[in-house]
Design goal:
The protein is mostly helical. It has helices at residues 2-5, 39-51, 53-56, 69-73, 78-87, 103-115, 137-148, and strands spanning 8-9, 32-33, 36-37, 90-93, 121-123, 158-159. Helix content is 38%, strand content 9%.
Length: 162
């Protein structure tokens, strides 16, 4: 009974190693031309402003509640960013799915399932029950990376006509 009532909290250390399927940095680069951004970076801005700005500030520059992401993401790879987002908060899966002999393999499989939204749940204060942000981690990374690199200023970016 107790096992059913409690979810297993999976602590993820070194998640970056478990996410090679996210691809190389060149695959997640942003594009900014004359202040206009590619579609993915724009979706990242929209995602940030629908799910993250309440804690991290309108332009991702931080508040008393949450850190400045412009500075924090500047030197992060996508794998590091994803690991930070996924491991800074709880990742909850049913106790029935948390059993296995190889905890590393289980963790890697679970992370892949969470990314594909097949299993588990990411519980983050602003994201709890919010499907607007979780599927857009790469877009969010591109937006924050463009801000961190200084390629994109504050405010709503224009979208490049493709």
């Amino acid at each position: 009974m107790k096992a059913r009532a409690l979810a297993v909290l999976v602590t993820i250390g070194g998640v970056g190693m478990a996410l090679p399927s996210l691809g190389a940095e060149s695959e997640v680069s942003y594009r900014v031309r004359n202040g206009a951004v590619d579609e993915s970076t724009y979706l990242g801005w929209r995602t940030f402003h629908s799910a993250c700005h309440g804690c991290h500030g309108v332009d991702a520059t931080g508040t008393e509640v949450a850190p400045n992401l412009v500075e924090r993401v500047r030197d992060m790879s996508l794998a590091q960013f994803t690991a930070k987002v996924l491991s800074s908060y709880r990742i909850v899966l049913p106790a029935s799915e948390a059993r296995g002999d190889d905890s590393t393999a289980l963790r890697e499989q679970f992370l892949e399932e969470v990314r594909r939204r097949e299993s588990g749940q990411i519980v983050m204060p602003a994201w709890e029950g919010d499907d607007r942000a979780e599927p857009y981690l790469i877009d969010l990374y591109r937006y924050l990376r463009a801000r961190g690199d200084g390629a994109l200023g504050p405010g709503e970016p224009r979208q490049v006509a493709e």
